[in-house]
Amino acid sequence: MYAALTSGGKDSVLSIQMAMDKGLDVGYIVCVRPENPDSYMFHSSNLDAVRLIASRGQMEYVEIRSHGRKEEELADLKNGLQSLPITGLIAGAIASRYQYERVGEIAKALDLEIFAPLWERDPEWIMEQVAQRLDAIIVVCAADGLGDDLLGAHIDEALIDRLKRISSRNRIHIAGEGGEYETLTLNAPFYSEPIHWKGEERLVSPGRSELILDGLW
After folding, report:
1. Angle between the 123-133 and 10-21 helix axes, to the nearest 10 degrees?
2. Euclidean distance between the first and final Cα of the chain, in Å?
3. Residue 177: how many CB atoms within 10 A of its CB?
4. Measured over all CA atoms, what is the biggest interatomic distance in the chain, rounded to whole angstroms?
5. DSSP state of 40
6. How many angstroms separate the Cα of 177 from the Cα of each of 16, 83, 97, 125?
7. Which helix (H) or strand (E) holds 205?
8. Do the Cβ atoms of 48 and 169 come closer than 8 Å?
9. Is the separation of the CB atoms in 181 and 138 below 8 Å?
10. Whole-model pTM above 0.85?
């Protein structure tokens, strides 16, 4: 049985879907909730949605609390995983060697296999898969060229083209692997129904804008 590490973003949810497509038994959705919004490893936006994603996929939800301090948060993750009856981990890493190697170290220490189907894949291919298979929206913008007008934008062909144009000017990673933006996946083939919400709030500050979804259900 596998546990999937996710904050609800497009890459980890796509990785879960690909694991299920391959026939892997995904029994747990693991969410690390950092106190530090600038965590090196984990996102902090709209994490209340992850419990709903687990429910939609008929998986057990596991939440691990962390201060979000570099390296210490990895110990928090390891401690939270070691009690689970699993044989493998699913990760959505694309190009961040820091994240991939740290998760790999934890998997090795706990004698777990690691399934990271997006690792070093072409970012454009990944974005095409997201657009075709998921319904994901941008919930955080944190790079030059990504204004708060992108908050709530669905990842589709038009948005991918826009991100490519921005990337050509501002050298962002079009899949957001450098933290340029964060996403929330509202629907995927393994969801029994989409994620809904009742209201929303926008927090805009220099260098970062965030869409907070209220009343998730």
Report:
1. 80
2. 27
3. 18
4. 47
5. S
6. 17, 30, 11, 14
7. strand 199-205
8. no
9. yes
10. yes
